[in-house]
User: Fold this.
Amino acid sequence: NSKLMKKNLLILISGSMLSLLGINSANATEHIITSGGTGTSNSFLPQTTNAVVGDTITWIWLSGVHTTQSTTIPAGASSWSYMNLTGSNTTFSYVPTVVGTYNYDCHASTPHGMNGVIIVTAGSTGIVSTENNSSVGVFPNPCFGKINIEMPAAEVITFFTISGKKIKSCIIQKGGTKSEIDISELSTGIYFAEIYDGTKIVTKKIVVQ
Assistant:
């Protein structure tokens, strides 16, 4: 009984520490940063990202040849350096575990103005996530093989299982009224699609037949 009590106490303390740190995986958000351009048009968008400890920061390649490398980060945080953000390696993710300001650069050893900042707090992110946003059309739904997205400003769509596992991300060509996405590799079931337009994330439930 004493061993069981110690074990339960350890679990309770661990859970309390995670709460104090602001880490709550059930409420974690994925923040999308696109990386693209060549020459003087290089950019990370958005350049400033507001996140919460335990959120996921995901860089998605759009064009050019880029890296993402931390330059100055809070004490106790883990640095990162992903050296091959190109067409064959389109995404990289990082989870901040410490409150503070994270500065990063593309090719940090030879800075050329392509940089960004992640501001991490223990509070809410301010990212908008709306499951039933009537301004975003997703059809057909239920669907099979392909799905259409009606959201002119959309940049990226990411698919998750109902348990929260990320399945795939697709870059959406901006400017059109409708984008067709190939989802033929998704098995029959229910998924959530996060559609990012540069300022907010809209979440839609998708049924694949």
Remarks:
- The first strand starts at residue 30 and ends at 36.
- Residues 40 and 113 are 8 Å apart (CA to CA).
